[in-house]
Amino acid sequence: MNRRNFIKSGAALTALAFFYPEKIIGGEKVMAAEKLKWWQKTIVYQIYPKSFQDTTGSGTGDLNGVTQHLDYLKKLGVGAIWLTPIYPSPQVDNGYDISDYTAINPDFGTMADFENLVAEGEKRGIKIVMDLVYNHSSDKHKWFLESKSSRTNSKADWYIWKDAKPDGTPPTNWRSFFGGSVWEWCEERQQFYMHSFAKGQPDLNWENSEVRQAIFDAANFWLDKGVGGFRIDAIPYIKKPAFVDGKPDAKDGMIAVHTMTVNTPGILDFLHEFKEKVFAGHDIFTVGEANGVAPEDLKYWIGDNGVFDMIFEFSHVNLQFKNGEVYCRPTEWKLTELKKAISDSQAATKNNGWYPMYFENHDKPRCVNYFFKNVDTVKAAKVIATILLTMRGTPFIFEGQEIGMTNVNWNSIENYNDISAHAQFDFAINEGFTAAEALEFVHFFSRDNSRTPMQWNDKTNAGFSTGKTWLPVNENYKTINAAAEDKNFDSVLNWYRKLAKIRADNKELTQGDYQLLLADSEEIFAFSRSLNGKTFITAVNFSDKKVALQKDFTDKKIILDSESNFDKNFLQPLEARIYK
Predict the structure, then answer these.
(1) Could you tell me what percentage of the chain is helix, strand and coil, using 3-state DSSP and rounding each to the nearest 5?
(2) Choosing from 54, 93, 131, 233, which is the catalytic residue?
(3) Total-model pTM
(4) Which of 54, 314, 352, 406 is most buried (most C-beta within 10 Å)?
């Protein structure tokens, strides 16, 4: 097939930059890349401290365990560590229910341990990034304890309180993220308080300027400790709309709180104040968790006139949930949908803003199971890694992803710690599914899949702890562990290391433009990264089929391939390849 016909074909490349990377495309000249900031050139590694490394035998990971593995992370090319919450907490939602915003949970160590982690990270060029949870606090926080005590105390308006309806029922029919009403009755005030998540996580009232200043002060406390940035949790829900009923979306007669409250007009006013009073003037990065922000709205959240440096939007990881994020309502998705979701976000941040690329986090199952079914998970892990580390934007790796950790498959809902998994199990039962069917949904989607202890070696408890672990270790730790993979040249871990080095050594992979290729293919995810006339091309086969390649691929120079005996004319099932 000649080039002209190839471009017109159904398997066409979507950008002439593949052939002519220096040309003017669509009447718009590709601009030279600007000098990037430190956080745009590095890799961020997310740590769930509770499951990373226990140094005391308590069964719970700690800050000294993070410090212990800094050299491991440095070898992976990591320049920043995002810690999920390490503050004092009753652990209703594993630390996302905070009872003190400016202290360290004793389970994780002391403030001195934290300061040592920051200092040791600095020696290795690794910044520590804190998780801010400001939509809600714990119901054990001193602010809430005072607020609930009466309707006239100094913090009476620090949370969201509403009277019952005339018939005594809750103010609205909104369902919380963890099931049941978002409203909880308080005897002391004879009112309901709102909790978008668990009842132990009352929502803060951002309309109150004193509340905003208090949480801004808490963030500045950590800046004074030398942190390198913030990830901000559940931020699209801080602004509440009118408190009215919505159209029920399930048999329980309620509607998801996400539907009713996400990105309420006026939210950006709060966030610009946040930026002015905390972020501005510091050499840090900020990334907001912004489920529900569409690509076309990214310009309001990031970039020149935005509030954050990056936001996590969920379009590419919520393809299973076209009908709302409910375990028992998953939908089928196609590779073209995944490619479009990522490419739409890339296009939206091409000239304004920056993209945080990720496939896993503490709220999602393991990517080798979520994006693939019944495949070789080692090969699947390499496919994901190849996209992640050659894509435009800052790559975020979740602990254990770099060794190809997998989902668990426990035989009872009682084995699961995740409050969301229990809520989703109950919801499925109420929707008419059997207990076995409901458990299968939990197996696939539960957040516990990503929270099992890190698998360091093949010793007791995978080298994570000498004590009884807070969550069971995945049974496959004997074969999937960092020590074994460190010695295996062909391991997932060493594949990540190779990719990290290629990324660090080639500006095309940090500064270069992104162009999707083979947009219509349901087997191959391919894209180019071009800068100053030099181009890298990533091509991975998502399918279990051998796929032939057009000549426009086969005449390129291959610099890395996940198959040792590759055929330049084909991609084997789950084969990953990089051209230059």
Answers:
(1) 35, 15, 50
(2) 233
(3) 0.93
(4) 54
